[in-house]
Design brief:
about 40% helix, about 15% strand, alpha/beta, 13 helices, seven-stranded mixed β-sheet
Length: about 450
C-alpha cells in the first residue's frame, strides 16, 4: 500500500519524523507558544483527506485554514501550475503576463456590482491593508469601523481591525480603528428576540457609532460578509443592505471582506451574493486558488479606481499577480465552473450538512446552536443550553474542548476549532458520502462534550 504521494507508510513515517525534528528545532509557528507546541505532521493529501505522520487518514473538515475549497491536489490546478512553471515562473508586476490578465478577467466577471478592477496581493491580510489604504486615500478620511467578533488578518492594520483577542497584544489604540457590535442573535448585544429586531437594533447602533465618531472622519466600514473564524454568524435579512445604505448616506466606503467566505464557500461565488448587495471594495484570497500558491487581492469599484487615474496609487508588492499564483486561480475558477463545485457546496449545505448538524443538535445537550451556509458551518458548544455558558471561555480553550477535538481526530476527523466552537468547513467538493462520514464521527465526538454539559 502506498500513500497518494507514492510513499510507503514506512517511508512516510521516516520522512515525517525527520520533518518533525527539524520543525521543532528551527520553525517558529504563528499564534503559538513555542515551547509547548506539538504540531501535527501532514505527509500527504488528496481530495477531502489528509494523512498524518503515522499514516492515519483523516477527513479534512477544516479545509486546512478554510482555504482548500476545491480539495487537495486537484489535478487541473496542479497541471496548470506545472505548465506555468515551464513557461514563465515569475515576472515583475509592472509587466503584463497572460496568467494575471486572465485571472483578473475571471474574478471581475464573478464579483458583484461593478467591481471590475483587480489589485493582486499575496494573501488576505495584505488585501485588507490595501483596501483600507484605498478607502482612506479616496475619502481623505482616516477612521475605519470594524465589528467585534471578526478577523481581518495578522498584519498591522488588519490585526487592529480584527475584533477578537489576537488583536489585544498588537493594539495600542492608535490605528484609527473603532469597533462596533454586529448582529449575532444567539448572543445578542441588543436584547433582541427576533432576526428583525436584531437587524434594526444593530443598524441603529452602527448609525449611532457613526454619529458619535463623526461621519466626516470615517473612511470605511469593513465587514466580513459572513464572519468566519469569529463564529460563522450569518447576518440576518436586511443587515448588509442597511450597512450599504448607511455608507451611502455618509459617504463612507463599504469594504466586504470575502477572504474566507468567498469563492464558493457559502454556496455562492461570494457570500455577499446571498444578500444582493454590492460593496465598494471586496477583498479575497484563500479559495481564489485554494491556497495552492499564495494569492489575494482587492476588487475595486469604478469610482474608487478613478481616484487613481491621474494620481499614483502609493502601494505595491514584488509578487503582485505572480504568474504561478494567478495561473492556479485561472485553473481553480475554471474547474469550479466546469465541475459545478459552487453548486455542490450549496447542495451539500442545504441537503446534507445543515440537516445533519441540526439533527445532532437535537440529540446532544452540549450543542447550543448550529448555523451556516453551504460548507461553512459552526457548532456552538455550551455547558448549559439555558444559560448558554460556553464550553470554553472567549479567547481561550478548555479541557472539555480539547477532549472533544482529540476524540474526533482519533476517529479520523480533522476539525477547525475556535474557542467553544467546532467549525464544519470541508472542501466545496465534498461528496454526500464523505459529509455523512464526517457527521457520524462528529456525532461520536460530541458525546465527549456532552459529559461536560448539564
Amino acid at each position: 500500500m502506498t500513500l497518494p504521494n507514492g510513499l510507503t507508510p514506512e517511508a512516510a513515517r521516516e520522512k515525517a519524523a525527520r520533518a518533525y525534528e527539524l520543525d521543532r528545532k528551527h520553525v517558529f509557528h504563528s499564534w503559538s507558544a513555542q515551547k509547548s507546541l506539538d504540531p501535527m505532521v501532514i505527509t500527504a493529501a488528496q481530495g477531502c483527506y489528509v494523512w498524518d505522520g503515522e499514516g492515519n487518514r483523516l477527513l479534512d473538515f477544516s479545509s486546512q485554514m478554510v482555504n482548500t475549497n476545491i480539495g487537495h491536489q486537484h489535478p487541473k490546478v496542479v497541471a496548470a501550475i506545472q505548465e506555468q512553471a515551464a513557461t514563465l515562473c515569475t515576472i515583475g508586476p509592472p509587466y503584463v503576463n497572460d496568467a494575471r490578465s486572465e485571472a483578473a478577467r475571471l474574478i471581475a466577471e464573478l464579483t458583484p456590482g461593478e467591481l471590475n478592477r483587480i489589485f493582486f496581493t499575496n494573501g488576505g491580510a495584505d488585501a485588507v491593508e490595501h483596501a483600507v489604504r484605498m478607502a482612506r486615500l479616496h475619502t481623505g478620511r482616516y477612521k475605519v469601523l470594524a465589528r467585534y467578533r471578526s478577523y481581518h488578518g495578522g498584519t498591522e492594520t488588519a490585526v487592529n481591525l480584527t475584533g477578537d483577542p489576537r488583536r489585544w497584544p498588537n493594539d495600542h489604540g492608535n490605528a484609527g480603528v473603532v469597533h462596533f457590535f454586529g448582529p449575532f442573535l444567539y448572543r445578542s448585544q441588543f436584547h433582541a428576540t427576533t432576526e428583525a429586531e436584531e437587524t434594526e437594533r444593530a443598524l441603529q447602533h452602527l448609525e449611532q457609532t457613526i454619529a458619535f465618531e463623526g461621519p466626516s472622519t470615517i473612511a470605511a466600514v469593513i465587514l466580513e460578509s459572513v464572519p468566519g473564524t469569529a463564529g460563522i454568524m450569518v447576518p440576518p435579512p436586511g443587515y448588509l443592505a442597511g450597512v450599504r445604505e448607511l455608507c451611502d448616506k455618509y459617504g463612507i466606503v463599504f469594504i466586504a471582506d470575502e477572504v474566507m467566505a468567498g469563492f464558493g464557500r457559502t454556496g455562492e461565488w461570494f457570500a455577499i451574493d446571498h444578500f444582493d448587495v454590492a460593496p465598494d471594495l471586496l477583498t479575497f484570497a484563500k479559495g481564489v486558488n485554494s491556497g495552492y500558491v499564495p494569492l489575494g487581492g482587492v476588487a475595486i469599484a469604478p469610482h474608487i479606481a478613478a481616484t487613481f487615474d491621474d494620481r499614483a496609487y502609493p502601494g505595491g508588492l514584488t509578487y503582485s499577480g505572480h504568474p504561478l499564483a494567478t495561473a492556479a486561480a485561472v485553473a481553480t475558477i475554471t474547474a469550479m465552473r466546469e465541475e459545478g463545485i459552487v453548486e455542490n457546496a450549496a447542495d451539500m449545505g442545504e441537503r446534507v450538512i445543515g440537516p445533519g448538524l441540526r439533527e445532532l443538535a437535537e440529540r446532544h445537550p452540549s450543542v447550543g446552536e448550529v448555523r451556516g451556509l453551504g460548507v461553512f458551518w459552526a457548532v456552538e458548544l455550551v455547558r448549559d443550553r439555558a444559560t448558554r455558558e460556553p464550553l470554553a471561555p472567549y479567547g481561550g480553550t478548555s479541557p472539555a474542548m480539547n477532549e472533544t477535538v482529540a476524540a474526533a481526530r482519533a476517529a479520523g476527523l480533522l476539525l477547525f476549532v475556535n474557542f467553544n466552537r467546532l467549525h464544519v468547513v470541508p472542501p466545496c467538493t465534498i461528496s454526500e458520502a464523505e459529509a455523512k462520514e464526517g457527521l457520524a464521527i462528529l456525532d461520536q465526538a460530541l458525546t465527549v462534550a456532552d459529559a461536560h454539559a448539564v
